[in-house]
Amino acid sequence: MTVRYDYLKWDGTQDVSVPDTDELLSALTDDLLAGGDLSDAIRRIMRAGMVRRDGTRTPGLRDAIEKLRARKAELLASGDPDGKLEKISRSLDEIVREERDAIDEVARDDEASGDVRRLSVSKDACSAHLLELELMPDDVPGRIERLSGYDFVSSRAREMFDDLIDELRREVVETYFEGASKELENISAHDIVRMRDAYDALNKMLEQRERGEPEDPTFEEFIAAYGDMFPDASSLEELLERLAQRMAAAGAVWNSLSPLQQAELGILVENLLADMDLRWQVERLSSNLARAFPSVGWDRAHDFSGDGPLGLPEAVDLATQLAQIDRMEEILQSAASPAALFELDLEQVERELGEDVAKHLENLAKLTRDLQDAGLVEQRGARVELTPRGVRRIGQQALSDLYAEVNKDTAGYHRSVAGPAGHDREELVKPYEFGDPFNLHLTSTVHNAIRRRGTGLPVQLSPEDFDVVETESIARAATVLLVDLSMSMPMRENFVPAKKMAIALHSLISTRFPRDYLGIVGFSEVAREIRPDELPAAMWDYVYGTNLQHALALARRMLAHEHGTKQIICVTDGEPTAHVEPDGAVFFNYPPVPETLRLTMAEVLRCTRAKITINVFALDLEHTQYPFVAQIANVNGGRTFYTTKDHLGGYVLVDFLKHRQILRPAG
User: Fold this and answer.
1) How high is the pLDDT of residue 422?
2) Is residue 556, in this structure, part of any structural domain at all?
3) Is residue 382 part of a domain?
4) Residue 265 domain-assigned?
5) Over 80: is that where the pLDDT of 487 sits?
6) Residues 223 and 277 placed together within one structural domain of the fold
């Protein structure tokens, strides 16, 4: 095996935290071999993450989802809009208290002191004012409505009330006009008219778009007139979506309140909007946006759990942030492929979860694309499949893993082969005979001609001068690998090791012994030939039966037209339990019946007469006894190995290399 390393000058931009394509493919391999579907394997690694060569773990979508949920819980615990009315109620209590103190001063005919300034009022009117204060309703909207028409005795109480109303108006404006109250420090009547006109223009554009009519005004004209109210709006679509998200977030705040608080705060906001001539336009825009953007979460609610009261804009900001987190979680939960992660706003992910999580999600989004760019996979419709290069790379990795395993611990097992027993040319020279490959050894041939005819030019060659190179001393070998695909193989966790061994053996033969033949047969109820490129996706069968008879018969036919030494390598975890009847029907029984064993042994005898060696690797000795496989060795002259899934690959690899030069025909 040749491992290629590419060395580049470090320029500070290389990201060593990103797995390379070989690491990605290696991490996918076991899932692919177990499930047979590369798309599913990619989805599993995308969700669960992967363990890298250095032992560190690259997180997956589940980790990101857990972090999102923790972030959501943190935000929900940061405050509670339910406390807003209580805060307003306390402010109203303070205003009423200030007003009562002023009335008491008038009643005592005292001069106002400090910052309290009395309005001109008679002592007789004091009783009427006190009665009006006593008869005020308990709810916040009712108290605000009464105080709005109340003739204050205290100028300071009047200022406090006006300041409270201004604050509430600013909050309502910012609730629906994100950032507008920051631009409009003091909201004047002119500002409110412009807001109403801006909403009217937006509603007209939305309704014209819905009817398929040209938009009037255009977005450019709208921004020229009202851009200060909608900072950073780059397009009409972006602006409308942002407003839809904010209005949906405002709805989520109302939905999150207790029924009593919901009713009171809702009435208060409606009254404030009506006071500013904005109520109808807001309701109209909300209705238009709900039709244009039905999927932004209009019915969403949140379980706020914080202690501190949240103002309306802060609550809506928080609800908007929570909606974005919910949207991120929806994308992560529903992502059926890495490409679906490109829907994520990575800047938003970075703000909520940090740079590391954003980087990991970006890498996951590019997972399939990186494998495609490396030529290892290709997209075929909705499926991702291995390319021939990808199949070869998996084989090389499997073979490298087996070499590493064999070299790590060889005690009690076969010795690893010290040097290659391969296909290299040996410079052995022999006189040419009819039928030999015409690999002419020029030096020896010219030397023969000169020795026979003497020196002089030109050198005259004749057939008896020809010497040829014996290219190799190893005979060509033909092997068929039989892999048990019965249900017991995955049940006992033998299936993936057997497939990995088969892929590694194919890689070994195709690279080290290119003249050799390797056929692969999977067998359960019946046997079938498997092409090497089909191996990664080959699956075990959802049927009962271990039909070794049919597998041996198919292997014998595959080897019939091959030359050189022939062998069958069989990997199984049980004895034959099925056979093919003369009429083509399949018979199954467990435990094996004598007829199944007789017909299977008859096929062993046919292979033996065809000079095919059968080597059996019997798995899972603790579950199954193997008297029949021992009989195969006795009849055929091959070998039987009792091994486990952990050592199967090493046994097959080392035995194949060890006996590659000394394979002898059976018989």
Assistant:
1) 36
2) yes
3) yes
4) yes
5) yes
6) yes
Is 557 in the same domain as 627? yes
Tokens of 486: 């019965």
The last residue of one of the domains, among 442, 470, 498, is 470
Tally of structural domains, the chain: 5
User: Which residues have a Cβ under 8 Å from the Cβ of 49 and sit 6 or more positions away?
Assistant: 57, 58, 59, 60, 62, 63
Q: Are residues 240 and 198 in the same domain?
A: yes
Query: How many C-beta atoms surround the C-beta of residue 1 within 10 A?
Result: 11
Angle, vertex CA 66, rays to CA 64 and CA 71, nearest 5: 95
Identify whether residues 504 and 640 lie together within a single domain.
yes
Same domain, 578 and 517: yes
Q: Could you give the CA distance from residue 482 to residue 480 in angstroms, rounded to a whole number?
A: 6
Q: Closest Cα partner for 632 from 570, 546, 587? A: 570
382 and 464 in one domain?
no
- In the three-class reduction of DSSP (H, G, I as helix; E, B as strand; rest coil), residue 235 is classed as coil
Residue ending a domain, among 448, 470, 492, is: 470
**Whole-number Cα distances in Å, 83 to 79, 172, 258, 311:** 8, 16, 11, 9
Q: 661 vs 191, 387, 640, CA distance in Å?
A: 95, 33, 19
Query: Residue 119 has what pLDDT?
Result: 46
In the numeric block, the tokens 């080392």 are attached to: 654
CB 375 within 8 A of CB 622: no
Alpha-carbon Rg for the chain in angstroms: 42
Question: For residue 399, what pLDDT is reported?
Answer: 82
**Residue 12 tokens, joined:** 């500070």
Sequence letter at residue 584: G
Give CA–CA dist 399/137, Å, rounded. Answer: 84
pTM, whole model, 2 decimals? 0.69
- 440/487 same-domain check: no
Q: Are residues 501 and 533 in the same domain?
A: yes
Q: What is the mean pLDDT of residues 203-212?
A: 92
List, for residues 33-51, the tens digit of each pLDDT value: 878 888 888 888 899 888 8
**Quick check: is 288 in a domain?**
yes
- Looking up residue 588, the CATH number of its domain turns out to be 3.40.50.410
Q: Are 257 and 265 in contact (CB under 8 A)?
A: yes
Element (H, E) at 269: helix 259-275
The percent helix, strand, coil of the chain (3-state, each to 5) is: 55, 10, 35
Amino acid present at 140: V
Query: pLDDT (tens digit, 9 = 90+) per residue, 64-76?
Result: 999 999 999 999 9
Domain extent at residue 441: 428-470
